[in-house]
Amino acid sequence: MKITAIGVNAAFSTGDYDRSISEQEVCDLFWEMIHSPKDLKNLSKEDINAKIRQLSKVRYDPPWHSNFLIEFDMPNKRDGQSPYRLLLDVGGDIRHALKAIGLASRDIDGVYISHPHNDHIGGMEYIGLTTLFNPFYTIEKKRWLGETFIANKLFAEETTQAVPPSNTKPDLFIHKKVLEPLRRALGPGLDTVQGVPDVCLETYFDVHLVGKQGGTTLTHVFRDGDETWKMKPIFAMHVFSSSEEMPSYGVSLQYSSGYNVLIPTDIQYMIPPQLEMHYRKADRIYMDCETSPFPSGVHPHVSDLINHLAPEIQKKCLLYHYDAYPNVPEGMFYGILKAGDWHIYPEE
């Protein structure tokens, strides 16, 4: 299993604007200078600065929301080849974050949603609409559609097949307590398709409920080569008031040989009391880490992680979900994630 941090920043992080020129523009500039009839020795610093100012453009270095790409060595939904790609949350910027690692919605097989805050669900409209209107999203989708446009197909078969077959759309893994708020949040963007009278979340996604359902806890097992990973939702409180609450359902990924990866997602406390045994059991922990100078009270703050988290837990933690890059004592934590960082599990 490979986990890539395609974004590591908090909900309201902002990047920096700067003036710069591209690598190609630098090469072209050097080539022009070398072949100029003007002796390079006579070029002044002002001449060079003037040319660079002429070529430079304002560019923005964006921080992507905290999202993860999890890849399993198993047949995927798209073409039956490996890997199966699962997004853990989709931020408000997932299309850009995916492009940064050379991927797009056509390369994604499934999505797991932890809770319905915008920095975790904002990319669902992009995933849903672009895969719905992509006739080649899966091999089975092309067979099902033939040469028919998706809207025409849905309209023609509305009485016999209300939504597209499961093998033609991405998987959506979600706890039932997150599903209905997600429907409400996505409704304005996904409840209408031109010419189709009845559209719903299941039009776009193959929905799989996970977590406690009645007396049973539903999990999902992913193959990974000759072994497996069991994905189990982990409940933690993120925000609550006197009248409302916002839980977040992170995931525990349990390898068939025993290795455990814990991704609690957004949590209010360093170690929620009901999750203490999960933290002690885990071999690797992806830890929510707020760095704002004004602590919100709904994320573990870096100062608390430094001063109050047990050393044996600190050593397991990869920090992410920050504004400013965390300033922590060297060697205290397993690491601090940057966008694009990846790890293979189980670690040798």
Major sheet characteristics = 7 strands, mixed
Q: Given the structure, what is the number of helices?
A: 12
Count of extended strands: 18
- Beta-strand percentage range: 25-35%
Enumerate the spans where pLDDT stays under 50 for 5 or more consecutive residues.
none
Q: Could you name the CATH homologous superfamily of the largest domain?
A: Ribonuclease Z/Hydroxyacylglutathione hydrolase-like
Structural class assignment? alpha/beta
The CATH topology of the largest domain turns out to be Metallo-beta-lactamase, Chain A
State the end-to-end distance.
12 Å
Approximate helicity band? 25-40%
Strand order of the largest sheet: 8-7-6-5-4-1-18
Q: What's the number of structural domains?
A: 2
CATH architectural category of the largest domain: 4-Layer Sandwich
Average pLDDT for all residues = 92
Q: What best-fitting shape do the alpha-carbon axes yield?
A: globular
Helices and strands, in order, run as EEHHEEEHEHHHHEHHEEEEEEEHEHHEEE
Oligomerization status of the protein chains = single chain
Highest-level CATH class of the largest domain: Alpha Beta
Rg calculated over all Cα atoms:
24 Å
SSE arrangement:
Blueprint: E1 2-7, E2 16-20, H1 23-34, H2 45-55, E3 57-61, E4 67-72, E5 84-88, H3 94-100, E6 110-112, H4 118-121, H5 124-132, H6 139-145, H7 150-156, E7 171-174, H8 176-190, H9 201-204, E8 206-209, E9 211-213, E10 216-218, E11 220-224, E12 227-240, E13 245-255, E14 260-263, H10 276-281, E15 284-288, H11 302-307, H12 311-314, E16 317-320, E17 335-336, E18 342-344
Parallel strand pairs: 5-6, 6-7, 7-8, 14-15, 15-16, 16-17
Antiparallel strand pairs: 1-4, 1-18, 2-3, 4-5, 9-10, 11-12, 12-13, 13-14
